[in-house]
Design a protein that fits this description.
247 residues, mainly alpha, 10 helices, transmembrane, membrane
């Protein structure tokens, strides 16, 4: 039986408005697990010892594009106008994978080197002050990475512009920086008290929190750096709209 014109849209009901974002987050979580599966499976086979830090960094390569696709899919996607989070997730992965890897792979390499230095520094006589500095640098790199991945996921900028904008907003939006630092602490706590798999299951929730925290940043980027008549290659599309070309 086909619905009549007077039949209310289930999405407009209170239950529908509650169920729609839950559905989106569950589907995006499934997309993340599938996109990150090579790294998740490989990391489970690596012994959790400090000497294997470079291997864990290599296993983490798929995580960046997978999280980027989650950011893309969840941007304005849970309001009910569209009911297809699965294709949107994979469109975001396809659009963002190259730009995000340009950010993510060097960061993993730097993080692995810093992590090895922190782990083995005391054993080889490195002064405590340099260990503290290494932790500060690691935190700085992690925060910069969050800004860079969000910008690369939602906008089409050149790599050097992503680098500059990330540094600019780290300093210019201290509340956003503090919010991202809190999310990093929460992620570390999930891994410490549960496991990396628990963090992977919560990836879509962390993506939603990151988008909420980044709203002042993304709003300012659109107002200051995106021309009103310029098509954004990262903008979500309607089901019937043609794909926007990348820059």
């Amino acid at each position: 039986m086909t619905p009549t014109a007077s039949t209310p849209d289930p999405r407009d009901t209170r239950l529908g408005r509650l169920a729609t974002p839950v559905y989106w987050y569950l589907v995006v979580a499934a997309g993340f697990l599938l996109a990150a599966a090579p790294g998740l499976v490989a990391s489970a086979l690596v012994a959790p010892v400090v000497s294997n830090v470079p291997l864990f960094a290599l296993c983490a390569v798929p995580y960046g594009p997978a999280f980027s696709a989650a950011l893309y899919a969840l941007r304005d996607g849970t309001r009910g106008e569209e009911q297809n989070p699965w294709p949107r997730y994979w469109r975001g992965w396809r659009l963002n994978v190259i730009d995000v890897l340009w950010v993510w792979v060097p960061v993993l390499a730097i993080g692995a080197l810093i992590g090895i230095g922190i782990a083995f520094g005391p054993a080889v006589g490195v002064a405590s002050v340099f260990i503290v500095i290494s932790w500060i640098v690691l935190l700085f790199v992690a925060l910069w990475t969050v800004f860079a991945i969000i910008i690369a996921s939602l906008f089409s900028f050149r790599a050097r512009d992503i680098f500059r904008l990330s540094l600019y907003y780290m300093a210019g939006r201290p509340l956003a920086t503090l919010g991202f630092a809190s999310l990093l602490v929460l992620a570390v706590a999930v891994v410490f008290f549960a496991s990396g798999w628990a963090l992977a299951l919560l990836a879509s929730a962390f993506a939603g929190l990151a988008l909420f925290t980044a709203r002042p940043v993304t709003r300012d980027i659109r107002e200051r750096f995106i021309a009103p008549d310029e098509a954004d290659a990262r903008a979500p599309e309607s089901p019937d709209a043609p794909e926007a070309p990348e820059d």
